[in-house]
Amino acid sequence: MSIPGLLHLELEVRPNDDGWFKESFHGARLAAAGVPPFEVRQHNVLYLAEAGITRGIHAEPWDKYLSPAAGRVFAAIVDLRDGDRFGRVETFELGAGQALYVPRGCGNSFCTLEPHTVYNLLMNEFWSPQRVGVDLFDPELGIEWPFPRERLSYTERDAANPSLAGVRARRA
């Protein structure tokens, strides 16, 4: 990974007669895979009815552990921490068998790839409105979203996020 602390994890999904089962979060196994100590303080679940629902880019003052329970997402992570890796982007396609550990200060964004996606977000701090946002479509980031912009559904708040250059200038 080119973003320090970002981990992409493969999870075992075991089929059964009723569907499947996975251990989404197993502290000892995650520690063995390199995830730092992570005390879950809040667990959010998003149900997203349509493909193309897009959220982010948000960097909050907590670490996140993300994994779909159903459906698939395209995730784009942007390093927004000070340093020479500021602005670096990593993208992933996540299904039920994958998870991401995203360290605090890295911007998280996602786009649903199919309808009826259920996305789990575990955080090691309680939610607060503190965050740094970056424009989903900033050409400096070069994120190739899986659908054309006019097919994406995003919030006005996310659309108003500053460019990467704007975030950089605010810190100078």
From TrEMBL:
Site (Participates in a stacking interaction with the thymidine ring of dTDP-4-oxo-6-deoxyglucose): W127
One biological process term in Gene Ontology: polysaccharide biosynthetic process
Source organism per UniProt: Kribbella turkmenica
Short name of one Pfam family: dTDP_sugar_isom
One GO molecular-function entry: dTDP-4-dehydrorhamnose 3,5-epimerase activity
InterPro entries (alphabetical): RmlC-like, RmlC-like_jellyroll, RmlC_Cupin_sf
Annotated protein name in UniProt: dTDP-4-keto-6-deoxy-D-glucose epimerase
A single Gene Ontology CC term: cytosol
UniProt-listed SUPFAM superfamilies: RmlC-like cupins (SSF51182)
Matches recorded under PANTHER family: DTDP-6-DEOXY-D-GLUCOSE-3,5 EPIMERASE, THYMIDINE DIPHOSPHO-4-KETO-RHAMNOSE 3,5-EPIMERASE
Family, as annotated: Belongs to the dTDP-4-dehydrorhamnose 3,5-epimerase family.
Transmembrane region(s): none
Origin organism lineage: Bacteria, Bacillati, Actinomycetota, Actinomycetes, Propionibacteriales
